[in-house]
Amino acid sequence: MVNWSAKEEEVLRELYPIGVSLNEICLRLLNRSSRAIRHKASRMSIKRLKQYRKWTTEEEALLKRTYPSERKEEILKKFPGRTWVQIVSKCNHRGLGIKRKRVYRKSDWRPEELRLLRSLYPNQTRELILRNIPNRSWKAIAFKAQSLGLRKERELVIPSLRLSENDCVWLACALDSEGTIGMSKSGGQYVPHLQIGNTNRDFILHFKDTLKLRNKITAQESEGNYKTLYTIGTAKLGLIYALLPKLKPYTIIKKEQIDLILEFIEILKNTKRYYRAKKAYTSRQHEIYIRLRELNCRGRGD
């Protein structure tokens, strides 16, 4: 703590009593904060003189025009020497009877914006929402929707697959031999998945390009003289729903798994519960999950 010099105390005695703002005094006393200035003035018994300045008719007229709708900062600039407390007191308690409308900041959501968000967000496209709420970014819209508990009602996107009969036969063969049709459980959510495997990497790469899969091809090394098994899979409901009916006529071993997965997705499709569907599953969906686990269980069955 630096002691006050005689020159600083002289400046304080000169400026503090006559009502000079603390910001201006801080500019004169560069090494002192406003809190330090008030504390020092109290220690020196220096009091600020209360000088009441009467409101002029011009100020009252300006107040009536600006107070209801303009921002606090803009109003204070038009009334130098007046504090915000004095302005509010003049409007509310001293006979002017001016009521202040809510002045929204740029970041505040207006009622009409909230109404549009609630009506558009669940079932309309991103482009339409941005067009109707032009002053908000998509990131701000999504964050506000999340805080309001809004969720998009997603439709099941089913891609159009162009597979030759030869492709369907080979895929069904890979699915029957080294493939998997099953369902995992993650965080209370059932996730159908499909995986194909083969020891020929080019075979797997061909179907990765054909089905437009983004997943990486995984290599499973085997002990002994066995070849490396290459696998790729997907958990996209729309792709699985479009692909399995094309493969079913050519499968032999996994027909029941295909029927169960298609039935499960059909229930999701009818209830429109595709993502994070906790506590939304039917008893039949639980039965499908258990049956798939039994069918895909390794080792000797009962």
Question: What features would you describe in this structure?
Answer:
This protein has 302 residues and is α+β, with helices and mostly antiparallel strands. The chain has four domains: 6-43, no CATH class; 57-93; 111-147; 165-295, Endonuclease I-creI, CATH 3.10.28. The protein has 14 helices and four strands. Strands 1-2-4-3 form a four-stranded antiparallel sheet. A hairpin with an 8-residue loop joins strand 3 and strand 4 (229-234). Helix 12 crosses helix 13 (255-271) and helix 13 packs antiparallel against helix 14. It is elongated and about 100 Å long. The N and C termini lie far apart (84 Å).
What's the main sheet like? Answer: 4 strands, antiparallel
**Shape label:** elongated
The CATH first-level class of the largest domain comes to Alpha Beta
Helix-and-strand structural type: alpha+beta
Q: What is the string of SSEs from the N terminus onward?
A: HHHHHHHHHHEEHEEHHH
Mean pLDDT: 83
CATH topology of the largest domain: Endonuclease I-creI
| Proportion of residues in extended strands | 5-15%
Quaternary structure annotation: single chain
